[in-house]
Amino acid sequence: MPTDYLEDIIGQAKASAKKQETKQEETKKIEDKEEEIAQEVKKEDLKELITPSNQKEEIDESEISAKTQIEKELDTNKKIEVKSYGKVKIYKVPGKSLAYYFTPTVRPTGVDRRLINTLKEATTRLISIAPYKIRNPEERRVVYKQKIIEIIKNNPSLRIPETRTNFYAEAVVREMVGYGLIDDLIKDDQLEEIMIVGPKKPVYVFHREYEMMITNIEFYSEQEIEDLVNKIAREIGRRVDVASPLLDARLGDGSRVNATIPPASISGGTITIRKFRKDPYSIIDLIIMGTLSIEAAAFLWLCVEGFGTKPANILIAGGTGSGKTTLLNVLASFVPDRERVITIEDTAEVSLPIKHWIRLEARPPGLEGTGELRMDVLTKNSLRMRPDRIIVGEIRHEEAFTLFTALNTGHDGSLGTVHANSAEETIVRVTSPPMNVPQVMLAGLDFIIVEHRYYDRKKGTIRRISEIAEVYGSMEGKTKTEIIFQRDPIKDHLERTLIESKYLKVLQNFTGYRRERIEAELISRQKFLEELKEKNIRDLGEVSQRAKEFIESKKMVGETYEV
Hints:
About 40% of the residues lie in helices and about 20% in strands. By secondary structure, it is of the alpha/beta class.
């Protein structure tokens, strides 16, 4: 090809690129100018909103909120402070069974309320992006707070003293970006659940140390609760009204929310928020808390890891709040990094220290009644994604059949949870409508772990694994279970029974190891967990990593591993 021709082509390309670059620069200048004009228009619009005639000559800082019934009760009764952290104080009153959770609440009235409403409207006009579109909650708060402070400084007609700027900025952020009266509760990592039971009633919380408590927070009207419900619904593109009075959702921090409004809840709107720890429990935490014994922990670790050849399929059964998801999270942390894990959940709760992890989440229909993603559809789809393991957060409906199909077609090491109170009840639930798993397919399941929540007079609420049952299938299609670990309620300890595990025999066949070798491996893993416990190594990620290093470095039973 002639050189002149090539140079001509290159010259044309350069000219075209230069022309395109110039056009982009001109477009950017126009967009910047339009944005500048738009901001000026917004500021002009705000002049009508923010005028001296709408404000008092000066702010009356003596205007404060009326005390709630619980605050009055604490004032009149002899209270004992048992703990304080941050802004929170926990009190006990002699003769009262529940402790009191006290946190300073801001319920602006009078001029404070008018100013906050003005700032909210001004912020809405000046910020074009919706709060929930900034995914990081902390980043969202920073962006909005900066804009609110800017509005206050640029509008002296608001007559807000510099000393009160932060107060108003925080108040507006709390209502626009946060969750109003319960904002501080949601930030408290010591709380497991937050329960709004209706207007003119105290909000209840379940504390990790002091359990169920009454707070000094109270919603004065039904409208306040419904406003909060609608705010949460808008963030996920849902609608809550008389025709659709129920809401199941997930907040930006992963907390799970269930809300109801009349006519579903007769006494008024309710909101239940289940919070998840920022630092999830590890197997060491569960051992220290007494949820299971070290012997059982080592056994379950071996079952999940399966010497890398034959991991067990496990269902975790229990009631609401028994700790099923926590245990699921802990067991999944033992999955080797080389494996591809897919989790399917109704509402995302699992938090795994796994590198190759894909999360799938079900979704209800949107405002137009479309866009639904069912659990069974996601479970079927996961089989096309080349999973090494499938983890189903909670088995309820048709997805059970799909999961058990996977268990019987080589997807070993799968995990799931189900609502049931015993191993036998789990079998009945799984084989009955709406799950309808045939008895013959239960041969793919190896273990059922049953966990319960108990109330102990000395220890309070405790969570314990009551039994680890092995599942036996038969050619006749009938299924039976044998309990290989059972809780001794007197000792409050999970102990191994005399029944020999069928699964350990399966491991012998797959690995070629003798029974003595496998038992020695269990003892070795117990010692390793004991060392982690003694050194107080409890972080889930660190425990998971050390356990995997233990497996990789310990090629022969009897080799030592430095903790």
